Amino acid sequence: METEAALSDRYLTMPHTERGMVIGLFGGSFNPPHEGHKLVAEIALKRLGLDRLWWMVTPGNPLKSHNGLAPLAERIAACEQMATDPRIQVTAFEKRMNNSYTAETLAAVKARNPDCHFVWIMGADNLKSFHRWQKWQEIAATYPIAVIDRPGSTLAYLSSKMAKTFDYARVDEQEARALPFRKAPAWTFIHGPRSTLSSTLIREKNGK
Ligand SMILES: Nc1ncnc2c1ncn2[C@@H]1O[C@H](COP(=O)(O)OP(=O)(O)OP(=O)(O)O)[C@@H](O)[C@H]1O
Ligand SMILES: O=C(O)c1ccc[n+]([C@@H]2O[C@H](COP(=O)([O-])O)[C@@H](O)[C@H]2O)c1
């Protein structure tokens, strides 16, 4: 089990907020981060009108094998290199929470910051498997969700369980800027420039 010793305290505590801020939460393994992630962050900042984007490096996705998962400190450092927009804050506060489940994280974020407007951000591939996440219906019922298009997963929203269950709560992407202020359930699918990059591809190229 990795210790916190290699990590600065600023990555282990929940980022500071101010009343009324609009904040996007972008969680991921980032093993390693790549230009596709950067593109998602840029699209989210622009289309959702975010004041901040928390680039949340998970201690380990509960549904993925942790074989070959680079140390958290290494993934954080690589994300910092990628996250050049000053509105982006790289964080790994889930590590100190000793938690990898998004529902628990999001409940803690909301409890700590009742005066901010949050949106959960994920790529379209995660829409397909979202119904396997712990308390996924609770997440969708408490947080607006922005799904960003990804090659290979564009049509996922038509067939995914999440999209079917919450079809009535889908918001037109033209209204994406209003999404953070909507009462959940509310979600949108954002089309735009796309990247075929993946961490798997990079690991394979690097022989890992
Ligand atoms: N090219 C991409 N386009 C859109 N979304 C992406 C892209 N790459 C990753 N994402 C999204 O970014 C978040 C973090 O992704 P993750 O760190 O798992 O990267 P990945 O490339 O999917 O990794 P892996 O190949 O190891 O599964 C997820 O919500 C994922 O859907
Ligand atoms: O809470 C869950 O059950 C859950 C299941 C799968 C993924 N997640 C989270 O989803 C985010 C994206 O994960 P990943 O590995 O696709 O980058 C990351 O923050 C994970 O912790 C969360």
Give me some keywords for this one.
nucleotide-binding, 6-stranded parallel beta sheet, 6 strands, binds nicotinate mononucleotide, 10 helices, binds adenosine-5'-triphosphate, 208 residues, pyridine nucleotide biosynthesis, alpha/beta
Largest sheet features: 6 strands, parallel
Number of domains: 1
Number of helices: 10
> What is the CATH third-level topology name?
Rossmann fold
Secondary-structure-based class equals alpha/beta
Name of the top-level CATH class: Alpha Beta
Bound molecules: adenosine-5'-triphosphate, nicotinate mononucleotide
Physical arrangement of strands within the biggest beta sheet: 3-2-1-4-5-6
Task: Tell me the CATH superfamily.
Answer: HUPs
Instruction: Provide the gyration radius in Å.
Output: 16 Å
Measured by DSSP, the beta-strand proportion falls in: 15-25%
List the secondary-structure elements in sequence, H or E: HEHEHEHHEHHEHHEH
- Architecture, according to CATH? 3-Layer(aba) Sandwich
Number of strands: 6
Q: How would you state the average pLDDT, rounded? A: 96
What's the helical proportion of residues? 25-40%
Distance from N terminus to C terminus (CA atoms, Å) equals 21 Å
Q: Tell me, what's the shape?
A: globular
**Poorly predicted runs of 5 or more residues:** none
